[in-house]
């Protein structure tokens, strides 16, 4: 039974359980719903949930376990020689492809089901047969692989039947249990609410699950990368030159350097502008000015980063070349091309202005009015109050905000992919093109690289580094901001 | 410090003027500093607004031209024998190209435009997609064979750029694809009204085209990809986000686990988007074997990315519902669950929706994670074949499509990229306006 | 001064030796109106405040006494929607004259607030803040002197002299309020305004602050807003009673409490409302 049909059946059984449980509850109370412990709907839901929950659990478990079991059975059939030729994983993926192709062929009517299971390498050209239905096979189909594929197919088919039977049994079992349990004194509402609460808890735990998912996906691949490429060369290497033919040098330092350099320029733009804008908006601006200027600045925050990337590549870069380039207005010839650390840093700074200003605005507003009154009451001017009382009081919060902005800058991707250049370089000149950690993650994973090669796996190590750096900054910054807020709460 | 006498009485201060009506030097200086400080603030706001204006001006000035496209009208006689011959040849479109070339030469002759170019060279003013378009029409309308059908073929991107002012005659000197002589011809055709420029529907509804045919590239298919992703995000992130927020805000006990979840959520909100892309690649594609480039996977990744945003704004709206409402419901014997779902949640709904729309807008503009799961440009050349296929068939998304165009070398694609940004920003603007209206309309002050 | 409309009478009318009282006037307010947007918060208040005297403003909450106090050093300027009409003069100079800089005015008229609001800085920096921004000192040693003498005058010196570098926020509530008073004194003001300075303090701290106010009377003109009639009776020589934005009655504290002339004053001090 196909998965969608199976799901539909489960839903029907659940609906049945709803109706049955509700009517039974009604009957047990003699038709007087005042005698019921809960509203009739709760009995119905109790029935439906008693069917749905265990069934889905069983189905999910089966879906997770069956491929593992099948793989294990089939991979046992692959001889050591062919496994040694390439990796076992590659052979297995070939087997899977053949099996899928056969399924497709049967589905399209190119082969009958009997033919498909009786095929052998001698009798027909499987590559051609499968090519006809659109499954291109790379390697030669050996007898061993074909046999494995046949086993794979039969095991999977058996699995499907077993799955259907199991799931239906569980569903009917749930139906029976819920029907028997339904009675006018049964606390259906409490049960249903427990289940709903469980769902709520699960939703909240998804946040942790996401983090765990991120960590696992980074760690597994990073460990695999380090088994192919020495960790100390990665962390301390001064050269980044991947070549897919092998012999790559994958040192992260040039990337880290460019990342930090660009972030520094971005912060040098965003922090003064954002901070002064926040001070003006929260301390000086009349309500009208505030009502206009604040949303205008926040528009900058709502613009997608791809737009900033394009702005850097096509507007800011050429403009900077016109000024600092070889034939530029200044005639200094510092800049060779539009993509440069400066280009990306400047545009990223623009992007971060509203980020810094709105965070600082919140933080400045959290400084109690009593502080301002105290200072103004002593005869301080407004700017003296800001500089000598409000800023020192808000400093921890503002440091937190700047750290969050820094973490944003380090993790920003599209602006650097388009604006910073593609060549890794260790240079002090901000008008040189360099490339960052995030830009290289994109370029290493979007090519046609083989996922098992160090050149592709390095992206995970880069991602891991990025994640650790930004996470550290975030945790530290959020901690500071939290402590700061508590101080004035 | 120990030997202090009470000497600083008010009278003994020399520096201060006695009368309030005279302003002393120091106060003048301090007031000047005050004014300067204020101007720094105004300057900062000015810089921010200037950048915004510069950004918008550069988007509009570069992108608006993508919405018009030059085309050339040619009446093509569809002769049975020619078409049969073309369909029999191996490279079918090359024969169709010859048909168009002949028609074009004929057209120039009747128009009185003299040229010594051969058909092949002359055809450089036309889009290389023109023969394909002709063949498609013929296959779709076999009845039309034997008649003369008026066609509006796209001109090549350089001719189009010439009329939009992007391509100059001087720049053509080094261009292999077009000469000044071509421009003389199209100028004359334009005067006669055969070359016209009209609204570029193909840009809005079409699909991406190959490197050599920027004039045919459109964002429509990528828009569908984005739409499917947003659908996934909405259907998953909203219920999950609301459920998680309700738990944390209404039911969660104050313990370590809750603390961990809360810290986790605020950290997830600040994790770089590209890391979510890596998660998507490793978890959904490598581990779960979901298809690459599928909007479903893109939607899942964006869901995980927007969840923290939605949870944070939903919790804020739940917090703004006063406890008295909960007490009132509990007071008449409702269960905690009933008080939340019957009273608190409906009251918080406008705020939740506002937050969700803003989260969706954020997701719509996100590019980096999509690149990692293979949702790059030029992956889909036609619309998905059905409503459900849309979730799984490989597709791109608007921002990824824009990125693809920005990477290509031909400036004609840059125009497309800016134009794509205009469309993307229009969507974002609409979503934000809806969010603002929702907030204004339903905002409740307690 | 005596032309007060309607039922509003200032006590000066009944002053036995009016001439000497006038000589001594530090602050005089004439027909002051204050508006918060559309709300008429202070209505037609005229009052003379004597030098080297503690004047208490009493009245039920929301009667405008704090608002009026904040007019005296133009702290209301910081509120956008607030508008002041009428004349308020200190030493016969109109403080709302356009030529007057509020910064200079506030150096002359210091203020202590309801809730102790030390800056999140050290005790030393809290007290030296005012002298530094006003440029009252040329040398560090002078600043040290001002800090020490201000703290001594505020009666805090003995308690904090060994920890001038520790943060002002670390002191107890009563100490914080005395620190704020020291901070105000350090600028050498002529007038000190106190807005319910003891409302956030416990009785022992309150007693200390009240004692301090009595000592400060020698050198400064003090105006204190208070909720507590007992406090007004203990620390002030003159008392003004505000009600619903009107100044109902002003006179010697003794007289107001023993022999109020207005029914509303009597009702208030006998506890009928408030």
TrEMBL record, chain A:
It comes from Roseibium limicola. InterPro entries: MetI-like, MetI-like_sf, Phosphate_PstC, PstC_N. This is Phosphate transport system permease protein. Part of the binding-protein-dependent transport system for phosphate; probably responsible for the translocation of the substrate across the membrane. GO terms for cellular component: plasma membrane. Residues 256-477 form the ABC transmembrane type-1 domain. It comes from the Bacteria. It is a multi-pass membrane protein. The chain crosses the membrane at residues 45-65, 160-179, 199-223, 262-284, 296-321, 333-356, 389-410, 456-481. It is found in: Cell inner membrane; Cell membrane. GO terms for molecular function: phosphate transmembrane transporter activity. Its main location: membrane. Keywords: Cell inner membrane, Cell membrane, Membrane, Phosphate transport, Transmembrane, Transmembrane helix, Transport. Belongs to the binding-protein-dependent transport system permease family. CysTW subfamily. The gene is pstC. GO terms for biological process: phosphate ion transport.
UniProtKB/TrEMBL annotation, chain B:
It comes from the Bacteria. One of its GO terms (cellular component) is plasma membrane. Its main location: membrane. It is a multi-pass membrane protein. PROSITE patterns: ABC_TM1 (PS50928). InterPro entries: DUF3333, MetI-like, MetI-like_sf, Phosphate_PstA. GO terms for biological process: phosphate ion transmembrane transport. It is found in: Cell inner membrane; Cell membrane. Signal peptide: none annotated. The chain crosses the membrane at residues 39-60, 227-248, 268-288, 294-312, 344-365, 417-438. One of its GO terms (molecular function) is phosphate transmembrane transporter activity. Keywords: Cell membrane, Membrane, Transmembrane, Transmembrane helix, Transport. Residues 223-435 form the ABC transmembrane type-1 domain. It holds the Pfam family DUF3333. PANTHER family: PHOSPHATE TRANSPORT SYSTEM PERMEASE PROTEIN PSTA, PHOSPHATE TRANSPORT SYSTEM PERMEASE PROTEIN PSTA-RELATED. Belongs to the binding-protein-dependent transport system permease family. CysTW subfamily. This is Phosphate transport system permease protein PstA. It comes from Roseibium limicola. The gene is pstA.
From TrEMBL, chain C:
GO terms for molecular function: ATP binding; ATP hydrolysis activity; phosphate transmembrane transporter activity. This is Phosphate ABC transporter ATP-binding protein. It comes from Roseibium limicola. InterPro entries: AAA+_ATPase (IPR003593), ABC_transporter-like_ATP-bd (IPR003439), ABC_transporter-like_CS (IPR017871), P-loop_NTPase (IPR027417), PstB-like (IPR005670). It is a peripheral membrane protein. GO terms for cellular component: plasma membrane. Coiled coil: none annotated. It holds the Pfam family ABC_tran. Belongs to the ABC transporter superfamily. Part of the ABC transporter complex PstSACB involved in phosphate import. Responsible for energy coupling to the transport system. One of its GO terms (biological process) is phosphate ion transmembrane transport.
């Amino acid at each position: 039974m196909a998965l969608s049909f199976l799901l539909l059946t489960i839903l029907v059984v659940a609906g049945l359980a709803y109706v049955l449980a509700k009517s039974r509850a009604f009957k047990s109370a003699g038709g007087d719903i005042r005698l019921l412990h809960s509203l009739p709907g709760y009995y119905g839901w109790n029935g439906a949930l008693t069917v749905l929950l265990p069934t889905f659990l069983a189905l999910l478990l089966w879906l997770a376990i069956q491929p593992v079991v099948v793989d294990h059975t089939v991979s046992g059939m692959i001889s050591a020689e062919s496994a040694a030729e390439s990796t076992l994983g590659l052979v297995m993926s070939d087997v899977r492809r053949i099996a899928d192709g056969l399924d497709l062929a049967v589905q399209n009517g190119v082969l009958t089901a009997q033919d498909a299971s009786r095929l052998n390498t001698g009798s027909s050209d499987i590559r051609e047969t499968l090519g006809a239905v659109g499954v291109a096979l790379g390697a030669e189909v050996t007898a061993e692989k074909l046999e494995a594929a046949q086993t794979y197919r039969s095991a999977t088919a058996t699995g499907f039947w077993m799955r259907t039977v199991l799931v239906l049994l569980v569903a009917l079992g749930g139906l029976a249990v819920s029907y028997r349990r339904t009675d006018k004194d049964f606390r259906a509402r409490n049960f249903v609410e427990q289940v709903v609460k469980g769902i709520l808890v699960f939703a909240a735990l998804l946040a942790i699950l996401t983090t765990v998912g991120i960590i696992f996906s980074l760690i597994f691949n990073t460990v695999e990368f380090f088994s192919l490429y020495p960790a100390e060369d990665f962390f301390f290497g001064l050269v980044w030159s991947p070549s897919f033919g092998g012999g790559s040098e994958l040192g992260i330092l040039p990337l880290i350097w460019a990342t930090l350099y660009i972030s520094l320029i971005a912060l040098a733009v965003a922090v003064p502008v954002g901070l002064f804008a926040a001070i003006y908006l929260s301390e000086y601006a009349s309500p009208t000015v505030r009502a206009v200027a604040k949303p205008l600045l926040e528009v900058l925050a709502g613009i997608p980063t791809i737009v900033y990337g394009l702005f850097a590549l096509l507007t800011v870069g050429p403009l900077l070349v016109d000024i600092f380039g070889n034939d530029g207005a200044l005639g200094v010839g510092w800049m060779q091309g539009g993509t440069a650390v400066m280009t990306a840093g400047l545009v990223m700074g623009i992007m971060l202005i509203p980020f810094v200003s709105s965070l600082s605005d919140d933080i400045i507003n959290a400084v109690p009015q009593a502080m301002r009154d105290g200072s103004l009451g002593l005869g301080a001017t407004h700017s003296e109050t800001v500089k000598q009382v409000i800023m020192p009081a808000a400093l921890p919060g503002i440091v937190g905000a700047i750290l969050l902005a820094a973490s944003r800058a380090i993790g920003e991707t599209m602006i650097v992919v388009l604006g910073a250049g593609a060549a890794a370089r260790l240079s002090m000149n901000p008008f040189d093109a360099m490339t960052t950690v995030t830009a290289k993650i994109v370029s290493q994973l979007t090519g046609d690289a083989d996922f098992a090669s160090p050149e592709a796996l390095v992206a995970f190590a880069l991602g891991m580094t990025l994640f650790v750096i930004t996470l550290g900054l975030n945790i530290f910054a959020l901690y500071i901001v939290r402590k700061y807020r508590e101080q004035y709460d | 410090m120990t030997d202090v006498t009470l000497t600083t009485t008010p009278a003994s201060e020399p520096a201060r003027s006695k009368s309030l009506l005279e302003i002393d030097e120091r106060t003048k200086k301090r007031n000047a500093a005050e004014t300067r400080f204020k101007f720094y603030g105004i300057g900062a706001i000015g810089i921010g607004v200037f950048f915004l204006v510069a950004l918008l001006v550069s988007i509009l000035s570069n992108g608006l031209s993508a919405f018009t496209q030059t085309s050339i009208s040619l009446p093509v006689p569809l002769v049975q024998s020619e078409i049969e011959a073309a369909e029999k040849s191996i490279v079918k479109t090359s024969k169709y190209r010859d048909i168009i070339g002949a028609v074009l030469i004929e057209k120039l002759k009747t128009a009185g435009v003299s040229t010594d170019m051969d058909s092949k060279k002359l055809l450089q003013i036309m889009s290389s997609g023109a023969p394909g378009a002709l063949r498609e029409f013929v296959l779709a309308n076999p009845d039309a064979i034997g008649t003369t059908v008026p066609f509006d073929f796209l001109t090549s991107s350089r001719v189009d750029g010439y009329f939009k002012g992007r391509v100059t005659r001087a720049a053509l000197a080094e261009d292999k694809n077009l000469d000044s002589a071509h421009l003389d011809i199209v100028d004359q055709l334009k005067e006669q009204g055969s070359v016209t420029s009209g609204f570029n529907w193909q840009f809005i509804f079409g699909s991406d085209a190959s490197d050599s045919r920027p004039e045919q590239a459109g964002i429509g298919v990528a828009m569908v990809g984005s739409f499917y992703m947003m659908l996934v995000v909405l259907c998953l992130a909203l219920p999950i986000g609301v459920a998680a927020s309700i738990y944390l805000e209404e039911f969660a006990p104050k313990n370590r686990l809750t603390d961990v979840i809360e810290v986790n959520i605020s950290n997830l909100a600040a994790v770089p988007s590209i890391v979510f892309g890596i998660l998507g690649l490793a978890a959904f594609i490598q581990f779960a074997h979901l298809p690459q480039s599928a909007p479903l996977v893109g939607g899942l990744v964006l869901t995980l990315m927007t969840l923290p945003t939605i949870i944070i704004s939903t919790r804020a709206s739940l917090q703004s519902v006063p406890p008295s409402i909960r007490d009132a419901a509990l007071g008449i014997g409702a269960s905690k669950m009933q008080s939340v779902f019957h009273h608190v949640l409906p009251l918080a709904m406008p705020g939740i929706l506002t937050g969700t729309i803003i989260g969706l807008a954020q997701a719509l503009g996100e590019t980096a994670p999509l690149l990692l799961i293979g949702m790059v440009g030029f992956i889909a050349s036609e619309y998905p074949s059905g409503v459900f296929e849309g979730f799984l068939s490989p597709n791109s998304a608007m921002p990824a499509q824009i990125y693809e165009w920005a990477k290509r070398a031909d400036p004609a694609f840059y125009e497309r990229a800016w134009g794509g940004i205009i469309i993307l920003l229009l969507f974002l603007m609409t979503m934000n306006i809806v969010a603002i209206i929702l907030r204004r309309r339903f905002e409740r002050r307690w | 001064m005596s032309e007060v409309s309607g039922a509003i009478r200032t006590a000066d009318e009944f002053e036995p030796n009016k001439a000497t009282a006038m000589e001594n006037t530090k602050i005089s307010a004439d027909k002051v109106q204050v508006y918060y947007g559309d709300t008429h918060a202070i209505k037609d208040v005229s009052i003379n405040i004597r030098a080297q005297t503690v004047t208490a403003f009493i009245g039920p909450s929301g009667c405008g006494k704090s608002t009026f106090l904040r007019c005296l050093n133009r702290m209301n300027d910081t509120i956008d929607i607030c508008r002041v009409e009428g004349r308020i003069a200190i030493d016969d100079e109109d403080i709302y004259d356009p030529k007057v800089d509020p910064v200079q005015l506030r150096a002359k008229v210091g203020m202590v607030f309801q809730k102790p609001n030390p800056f999140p800085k050290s005790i030393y920096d809290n007290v030296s803040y005012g002298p530094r921004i006003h440029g009252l000192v040329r040398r560090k040693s002078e600043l040290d002197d001002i800090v020490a003498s201000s703290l001594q005058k505020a009666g805090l010196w003995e308690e904090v002299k060994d920890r001038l570098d520790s943060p002002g926020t670390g002191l107890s509530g009563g100490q914080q309020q005395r620190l704020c008073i020291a901070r105000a004194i350090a600028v050498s003001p002529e007038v000190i305004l106190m807005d319910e300075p003891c409302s956030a303090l416990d009785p022992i701290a309150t007693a200390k602050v009240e004692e301090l106010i009595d000592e400060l009377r020698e050198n400064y003109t003090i105006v204190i807003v208070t909720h507590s009639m007992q406090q007004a009776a203990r620390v002030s020589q003159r008392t003004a009673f505000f009600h619903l934005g009107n100044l109902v009655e002003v006179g010697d504290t003794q007289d107001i409490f023993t022999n109020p002339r207005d029914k509303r004053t009597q009702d208030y001090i006998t506890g009928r409302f408030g």
